[in-house]
From TrEMBL:
Domain VOC: 5-124
Signal peptide segment: none
Top-level lineage group: Bacteria
InterPro entries: Glyas_Bleomycin-R_OHBP_Dase (IPR029068), Glyas_Fos-R_dOase_dom (IPR004360), VOC_core (IPR037523)
Protein name according to UniProt: Catechol 2,3-dioxygenase-like lactoylglutathione lyase family enzyme
Gene Ontology molecular function, alphabetical: dioxygenase activity; lyase activity
Species per Swiss-Prot/TrEMBL record: Algoriphagus iocasae
Keyword Oxidoreductase: yes
Length: 127
């Protein structure tokens, strides 16, 4: 039934203005404003992630968006230089002082967008 359809995901934020600035200026992504006050993050390969405003927004307690990168260490350093603060976890996973989880699969580090949604950079292992 859905073999030839392009699925897409989405998540809410409390401020589209702050989201647009964050995703374009901090993360360097292409963002398109769509009707009904929705933003579309342009993802490599033609996919899109919808970001929509929600007045009673509550940040997701799980990772809503993962960014595969060639070098997690370098990407974390570049994002820290832009003011990103990486999450520090102890249980059930442990991160180092930079916020990178090592030794439990591919390297991964989590951070939040201005609405508090959890994002990650993860070592690209060719999936």
């Amino acid at each position: 039934m859905f073999t030839n359809t392009k699925a897409f995901g989405g998540f809410s934020v409390d401020s589209l203005h702050d989201a647009r600035i964050f995703y374009t200026e901090v993360l360097g992504m292409e963002v398109e404003k769509l009707p009904l006050g929705i933003l579309a993050l342009k993802i490599s390969g033609g996919s899109q992630i919808m970001i929509y405003p929600k007045t009673n927004h509550e940040p997701a307690t799980y990772t809503v968006l993962n960014f595969p990168v060639k070098d997690v260490e370098k990407t974390v350093d570049e994002l820290i230089a832009k003011g990103i603060v990486f999450e520090q976890y102890v249980e059930p996973i442990k991160t180092d002082e930079k916020g990178i989880c090592r030794g439990a699969g591919p390297l991964v580090a989590w951070f939040k967008d201005p609405a508090g949604n959890i994002l990650s950079v993860v070592q690209d292992i060719g999936i």
